[in-house]
Amino acid sequence: MALFSGVIVPMVTPFRRDEGQTINYEAGEQLVEKLVAAGASGIFTFGSNGEFHTCTPDEKIGFSKFVVERVAGRVPVYVGTGSCSTREACEMSRRAEAIGADALSVINPYFMKVSDAEVRSYFEAVAQSVKIPIILYNIPKSTGMNLSPELVGELARIDNVKGVKDSSGNMDNLAGYLQAARGNDVDVLVGSDGKISEAFALGASGTIAGTANLITDVVVRLWEALEAGDAELAAQLQAEVEPIRDVLHLGSTPQTLKRSLELSGIPVGPGRAPVSETTPDVDEKIKAMLDHYGISHSA
User: What's the domain count of the chain?
Assistant: First the structure.
């Protein structure tokens, strides 16, 4: 039985339009309730869509604690704690464990180029700093480094490394992870929403899907259809992910995703600066996408 399975939602972090773009806890509660009600298998705070890179350590821990309390055990809550600094990643991981996170998602160091040996020692240190499970997070377009299947195979032997999320979009890479994970009790999750069906066919146990912030029900039904072996329905639902993905490409992450949620009635606010507000032209495209899904929106 996979520890990490189904549809895990990397929830956006709601911000107000005040001077400090402070976190909007009320909107956070609305989003949590929507995701749980729609059948999400887990909630993940401070991934890429959660704008971890724009938030302070205290903001990340404070809001994650709030999410853990609001979820109240209905689904697992995972917290992103990776950093460019091993010391900070270990400290954030310990703090996340202390507030009740069920597991941690840990991105490898980014911005500077580091060797496989240095990345290995980073993940080893983070794993040793806590007792809860860790998911390795591979997103090479943002970190400048792809975690190789060989490196993942080495890291999979660490006791509490229990998952790896692949957002490379490269199915050969994901297949390599599945091979590396075999026999190590490590689950492989796909982070490329357009390739959920492909990843399932290869053996992925779940998806961490940003689009599920908005179309939670579509992604959940897609996963259920895949598990049920209903190929025709799964193909229809996988295609149904494309209209929102087309809109997401119109702005910087998570600009258009947050605006989609906002227009649908959950006031998650804009992305944090330097990410800007959407233009009226993009808003019209977002509204057309919401109409496609039958999601009512403000005019």
Answer: 1
